[in-house]
Amino acid sequence: MSALYFATLAILVLTAFFMVRQRAQALRVSGGSLHSLPTYHGLLAAAFVLMPMLVVYAIGSLIIARMAPAAALAAFPPEMAGDSLRSSVILRDVRNYLSGTHTGEVTEALKRGSAAFSAWVETGGIIKFVVGVLAGLAGLAYVRGRVAAHFRARNAFERVVIVVLVISATIAVLTTIGIVFSVLYETARFFFDPSLKGKPTVGEFLLGTEWNPQAALRADQGDIRTAFGFLPLLGGTLLITVIAMIVAGPLGLLSAIYLSEYASNRFRSFAKPVLEILAGIPTVVLGFFAALTVAPLIRGWGESLGLDVASESALAAGLVMGMMIIPFISSLSDDVMNAVPQSLRDGAYALGATKSETIRQVILPAALPGIVSAFMLAISRAIGETMIVVMAAGLAANLTINPLEAVTTITVQIKTILVGDQEFDSAKTLAAFALGFVLFFVTLTLNVIALQIVRRYREQYD
Question: Which domains does the chain have, with CATH numbers?
Fold first, then answer.
């Protein structure tokens, strides 16, 4: 039904555009002077068909998604449907039965529930289709009736576009606010919910030097001490990020300077896309490369020098991560330096400055805000990376600055905690939200520091 709905939507949108545009053209041919071009009349009609049909589809889908499961659960005994865990199992069985993949016992309640679920989906789909088509036709009739020489179709269409843009921006902002508050709520539960066992205080979490969210599940596992110290994870994250930036920072910036100021247009058109290919390599592939090639190579070199190198080390993960983020720094810095006006270069050359002096004293200061933004984007990308660290640096939460030892990061521990079936009323699971909130705060702090650096050292030119 959804495919039919959107096919009908596309047909009605195209029909509305060409029909109303043709009507406006006919008015102009007959000698009338139109305020707006016929194309704007057609676009307005297409918009008045598209938006009501999309709204009807969204609202109808939400209603069906809520009422169909409720109708299916009503066919089962209240003691089964009232339990959240059992109700999810019932709905899974209903969907499997309707798709023909159910392998368990087929009860009468399951048949009645499946029939009720299917009836709601089919009837609701038909009603949604009919109401959507009627709404689209009503929008078409409204705009078609407004077509006249004095009708300001362009202004009306621009207002529609502004409304769509405002709604899109509002959704983006509200989504961000919702994410922040959801993480903040779960973090508050982690620290202040008295029903959680083993939860740390805020000081123990932020200043603790031991991380072990596991707990003993059986008596034969011994006394496993649960600890939620954040410092080992922060130390591992910063250690790998620093190694990555030591690799990517100079290479990315120097390559950007060469491509922007020294390379020929022919070489630049070839080298820049090749360099940016690194950004498109999946991180799991880079993780394999780090685990199977870089890590054994570093370990072999370390053993030849008499050093004790772990099989999974921060150095291996940092080197490969640095290779991954080179395009972020190089491409963005290159674009920023190319945006510096040529008149600044010409003025520096006229004063007797060499090419290198012009780059150091004119171009780089003028492009400093963009370059700092490129570095901050690369740092944020490195802090948020998971797969490379999992495969090359391991899961050991060690508080160390030795790059030859195994470490872990905040994102890796979030992934580890939330893998598999979890109950969201335990300290172990809610620790992932606390880690996410602190990571968000650390990233925000780094961005604020970068803004202060830019405001202090940037140079503005008239």
Answer: 2-185 (no CATH), 227-457 (1.10.3720.10)
45 Cβ contact partners less than 8 Å away, ≥ 6 residues apart:
16, 17, 19, 20, 21, 139, 140, 143, 144
CA angle 412, 204, 417 (to 5 degrees): 25
C-alpha to C-alpha distance for 381 and 373, rounded to whole angstroms: 12
Residues near 369 by Cβ (< 8 Å), separated by ≥ 6? 336, 454, 458
**Pairwise CA distance, residues 192 & 201, whole Å:** 8
Q: How far apart are CA 187 and CA 456, in angstroms?
A: 35
What count of other Cβ atoms lies within 10 Å of the Cβ of residue 127?
A: 14
Task: Give residue 342's identity as a one-letter amino acid code.
Answer: Q
Between 153-192 and 38-73, two packed helices, what is the crossing angle to 10 degrees?
30
pLDDT at 218 over 60: no
pLDDT averaged over every residue in the chain? 83
Question: Does the pTM of the predicted model rise above 0.90?
Answer: no
Residue 195's contacts (CB-CB under 8 Å, 6 or more residues apart) are 425
Strand boundaries in 160-305, DSSP class E: 211-212, 227-228
Residues in the chain: 462
Q: pLDDT tens-digit profile of 414-424?
A: 888 887 656 66
Instruction: Name the token pair of 90.
Output: 């019932």
The residue type found at 141 is A
- Comparing 154 with 224, which gets the higher pLDDT? 154
